[in-house]
Design brief:
Structural class: alpha+beta
Order of helices and strands: HEHEEHEEEEHHHEEEEE
Strand content: 25-35%
Bound molecules: biotinyl-5-AMP
CATH architecture of the largest domain: 2-Layer Sandwich
Number of domains: 2
CATH topology of the largest domain: BirA Bifunctional Protein, domain 2
Number of strands: 12
Shape: globular
Helix content: 25-40%
Distance between the termini: 41 Å
CATH class of the largest domain: Alpha Beta
Number of helices: 6
Radius of gyration: 18 Å
Amino acid sequence: MEDKKFNIEIFDIKLDTQFIGRNFYYYDELDSTNSFLMDKKFGAKENGCVVLAEFQTSGRGRLERTWESQKNLNLTFSILFTELEMIENSLSILNLATSLVVAQSIENLFQLKTDLKWPNDILIKEKKVAGILLESSSSGSKLNKLIIGIGLNVNQSKFLGEYKIPPTSIRIESRSIIERERVLAEILNNHEAMIYKLVDNPSSMLNDWKNKCSMLGEKICIEQNGKLIYGVFEDIDEEGYLLLRTKKKIEKINFGDVSVI
Ligand code: BT5
């Protein structure tokens, strides 16, 4: 049965972290796991706590877009960071690091080749299997929490509706029903390891990320709020910006939707 409820005990046995996922909140339904952790009224403040919802009524993407995911089939979850000293030097590349972790976890478990699309989409055969939404809240200039939301299509076998990039799932690509508990544990285990690694060696993560990005070096178009910018995808800098070579100069791009032309 591909739509059976998430089994917390199975997940717990496979979780091998010190802090990420050690406090685990499971809900049948939420508006959005990111909004839930962002909500000031909510008591969960433990660094590394994870909230998973079987269904989101208002799952969100970037720029007010929506994230659609069928109940009990996929993984829609968020990780909260409240002790920010550890990650403060790598905040700008945490979205890239997270997309790399999700991609590597899929490859390790299922031997499926993944491709990364800047800033944080994970693709398999040019179809989107996962997306990431990073959000933070601050008081004054002080950041007090960071939330990493991940939507990963696991066992969904059909996607209705219109999508700019066609969606896919691990199930579609591997032609088998997937144990979600194993996938979540793998992602969280690898995510924690990545956080420790980033402190000492951010450039190794960036190199791994670039090696998985087939758009690098290609002629691309970036859409920013309806404006189109054309150029060559030259590089990713150490802060995670996309460096675009246009006719006049190298532009640093901090957001937008990239497509190959
Ligand atoms: C993202 O935004 O890809 C970030 C998605 C993050 C979702 C997670 S789920 C847990 C947490 N709680 C939340 O409320 N959100 C996070 P973006 O790059 O803006 O892409 C959004 C676009 O992806 C939409 O406009 C659709 O075209 C497409 N899309 C929506 N659902 C999809 C799905 N299940 N699979 C593939 N594409 C999808």
